[in-house]
Design goal:
44% of the residues lie in helices and 17% in strands. Helix 7 crosses helix 9 and helix 12 crosses helix 13. Strand 5 and strand 6 form a beta hairpin. The strands form two sheets. Strands 3, 4, 5, 6, 7, 8, 9, 10 and 11 form a nine-stranded mixed β-sheet that branches. It has a two-stranded antiparallel sheet with strand order 1-2. The N terminus and C terminus are likely disordered. The chain has 21 helices and eleven strands. The N and C termini lie far apart (86 Å). This is 3-hydroxy-3-methylglutaryl coenzyme A reductase.
Length: 515
């Protein structure tokens, strides 16, 4: 035997071979596990499968030694461990399940999600997550990390439909709607058809300003009053404006509104935010402005950067009156013959129903901004499709729907929606996710506008208001004609006990939502 061969024989042991075999099962353990022993039935028992699994499972001490090896990065050490071994370390408290992405590194994000699913599943009472139908593979988690979600275990696909197209300010747009409510897309499409027949929708942007309203305590009401007077003065406003606008080239302070309750002062900052929805931007600016204010009033105490005077994700009269985000009015004229042939009702019946339902009925209920039939339905579906914050549908869907006869003999329908609080953006938040970016691309408003910062976000708000107008028109027509239940039975009836067909049946003629 040669000298080289003798050296190899003496330095490579059986233990080394076993270690190499164990390390084969790295990120893809299913590819390295040996096949279970065959039985007469061709199947192995659970005990035999468990034995095969445990053959490769190193002890806790061995795994810790590999994981804590100081000569290499943690991500490299984890690549030497199987999924089951990482799970064992997590269950022992050596690895935090919420920090898996950080430990694995950007090239193993899906593996981090897969392991977290197993950890959570095995600790739960049902134990279903690990093998559930909740998808997790083939998703770009790099866009989610540090931006959209934590402790990720997968993603939830929602059906995406397209209503329309709808002509808005002379340009046609498809209306993207992510929803699980049958009839919604079909109904909105019917409204689009009626609006297009009259030349489409015209919109007016009457306001644009995101708000933040901190709560500030003072030792007494007198001192709080002095601070209020200072903010309302030209000098105080200018000092706060300079501090606020120093934080971003897009943040331009538009107004400051103050109110006092006892010794607590509330200040509602309103600012433009470019094409971002702007909550982070305005929070940063507000914090800087309060620092400048504290130099003037050192006794003040900032209780909360958001004191519910904004108001975010809650119904509030101040949003309805003052506006928040984009304030839009969308208007259209629908010819009388279209009301009859497409909407299957009359101008007189529509106007009467709108007054009795949307105006009087909502007033009887003490509604704030709820003078509409179902604005939240359309707005939320578009929010989900375009990466907006769905919780902001609370104030964003505030809407007043108005209808009146128009034309020489009142034979046509003038319809409008007024929406003072549409909170949207085309950069940041959920708009960084690839599918949502694809939807924004379809609308031609992805990202920041190259020449006019705020143009894309404002266009999205105009599209949403116009789509709400279509949805309102169609639903009210269905109610006026008595077709609502028939349409829901055809499009939205549960089929839990019936196998789904691959191609839905064509709805029968005469249904309210038939386009």
């Amino acid at each position: 035997m040669s000298t080289i061969a003798q050296q190899h024989t003496s330095t490579f042991s059986v233990q080394d071979l076993e270690l190499k075999l164990k390390q084969v099962r790295l990120a893809h353990p299913e590819q390295s596990l040996p096949s279970p022993p065959s039985s007469d039935s061709g199947l192995s028992s659970p005990a035999e499968s468990q034995n095969e699994e445990s053959y490769f499972l190193r002890s806790l001490k061995e795994c810790l030694d590999i994981y804590e090896e100081p000569s290499r990065p943690r991500s490299e050490s984890l690549s030497l461990l199987s999924d089951e071994e990482v799970i064992m370390l997590a269950n022992n408290g050596n690895i935090a399940a919420y920090a898996l992405e950080k430990l694995f590194g950007m090239d193993q994000l899906e593996r981090a999600v897969r392991i977290r699913r197993a950890i959570i599943s095995r600790a739960s009472s049902t134990g279903t997550l690990e093998s559930s139908s909740i998808p997790f593979e083939n998703y770009d988690y790099s866009r989610v990390l540090g931006a959209c979600c934590e402790n990720v275990v997968g993603y939830i696909p929602i059906p995406l439909g397209v209503a329309g197209p709808l002509t808005v300010d002379g340009k046609q747009y498809p209306i993207p709607m992510a929803t699980a409510e049958g009839t919604l897309v079909a109904s909105t499409s019917r409204g689009c058809k009626a609006l297009n027949a009259g030349g489409g929708v015209t919109t007016v942007l009457v306001g644009d300003g995101m708000t933040r309203g901190p709560a500030i305590d003072f030792p007494s009401a007198i001192q709080a009053g002095k601070a209020k007077a200072w903010i309302d003065s030209d000098d105080g406003h200018e000092i706060l404006r300079e501090a606020f606008e120093s934080t971003s080239r897009f943040a331009k302070l538009k107004s400051l509104k103050t109110a006092i309750a006892g010794r607590t002062l509330y200040v509602r900052f309103a600012t433009t935010t470019g094409d971002a929805m702007g909550m982070n931007m305005i929070s940063k600016g507000t914090e800087k402005a309060l620092e400048a204010m504290q130099k003037r009033f050192p006794e003040m105490v900032v209780l909360a950067l958001s004191g519910n005077y904004c108001t975010d994700k809650k119904p509030a009269a101040i949003n309805w009156i003052e506006g928040r985000g984009k304030s839009v009015v969308a208007e259209a004229v629908v010819p009388g013959h279209v009301v009859k042939t497409v909407l299957k009702t009359t101008v007189k019946d529509l106007c009467n129903l709108n007054v009795k339902k949307n105006l009087m009925g909502s007033a009887m209920a003490g509604s704030i901004g709820g003078f509409n039939a179902h604005a939240a339905n359309i707005l939320t579906a578009i929010f989900l499709a375009t990466g907006q914050d769905p919780a902001q549908n609370v104030e964003s869907s505030m809407c007043m729907t108005l209808m009146e006869p128009t034309g020489s003999n009142g034979e046509d329908l003038l319809v409008s929606v007024t929406m003072p609080c549409i909170e949207v953006g085309t950069v940041g938040g959920g708009t960084v996710l690839a599918p949502q970016q694809g939807v924004l691309d379809m609308l031609g408003i992805r990202g920041a506008h190259p020449q006019q910062p705020d143009q894309n976000a404002q266009t999205l708000a105009r599209i949403i208001a116009s789509a709400v107008l279509a949805g309102e028109l169609s639903l009210l027509s269905a109610l006026a004609a008595g077709h609502l239940i028939k349409a829901h039975m055809a499009h939205n009836r549960s089929q839990a006990n019936t196998p789904a067909v691959s191609v839905p049946a064509t709805p029968g003629a005469g249904l309210a939502y038939r386009v």
